[in-house]
Amino acid sequence: MTTRTARIDVHLTPADARAALRADVLLGLTAHLKHLPPKYFYDARGSALFEQITALPEYSPTRTEAALLAEHVDEIAGLTGAGTLIELGSGSSAKTRLLLDALGRAGRLTRYVPLDVSTAALREALDALAARYPALALHGVVGDFTTHLDRLPRDGGAGDRRLLAFLGGTIGNLEPGQRAAFLARVRTALQPGEHLLLGAALVTEPEVLVAAYDDATGVTAEFNRNVLHVLNRELHADLDVAAFAHVAVWDAEREWIEMRLRALRPMAATVRDLGLVVEFAAGEDLRTEISAKFRLDGLAAELTAAGLRPERTWVDPLHRFALTLAAARR
Length: 330
Ligand code: SAH
Ligand code: AVI
Known about the structure:
The protein is an alpha/beta fold and 330 residues long. Helices cover 36% and strands 25% of the residues.
């Protein structure tokens, strides 16, 4: 048996990734309120921990979105007429199979283009897909969806239309200003009439949200602390991972969950590659992620402001997750 290897374009080289990490860590750990971008969770271990999170009883977005996809994929495929599926922050591409199958049934699918910052997750996903979809062109992209949308493959010609999927609620991990810039870039990357399929978690009861980010078995805590392991390995830092507590807080005003790492004692850590000493007071927080939750009217307004016309929205019965199909306007 021959094994097919998928094409992978690297737009984020290891050198670029390292330069970005250095700049973000310098900025974030010297700020008055310390913070790090969430993209650094996702080395091989972080990506595997995220997959464990998706199966936790407390964490419903993945299950709920999968159920919405299972119910509506054929309608989505019909509305988009897509021959190329591009996915941003594709991770394991597990739910994507529902979309690939429906686009295949609709008869136009020729190409799948997953883009992720995590080379490990991308490779693993592509290997699994190559075995399952022998006739599909697989074209992986190692990239950052906040900076590399201008590098996405153009249409494949002969009337090929692209569907851009951004699933899982990852849009909520962008800050509001970044989100508006991101959606505007999505619009620019699409041709008029091509579609964005966006998955977004909705505002729901605070206790449900906090439990989803502070699960009983501590998997999310490990995922959160993983960013410290990444800094220790990549930048030769000596952060004492066990000396940080995992904290998840619902910010009712901004309607987002904040994940933080709280220093359990005063400490000084050295980030050798940056020649930096970082001091933490006891109880000081390092913000590692926001996960915004949306309201349907706000989401539609943000899409419209970016030049994307919401065509259909599907919501689960508990009103916890929304899938929106939006078309690029002329
Ligand atoms: N879409 C999948 C995975 C969500 S986890 C799902 O719905 O289950 C978020 C994914 O986005 C991870 O695979 C992570 O590596 C990727 N990611 C996070 N920030 C990114 C960025 N700035 N650019 C590209 N990928 C990013
Ligand atoms: C990837 N992203 C949508 C997840 C979220 O829910 O914000 C990441 C995550 N963080 C903690 N648990 C899961």
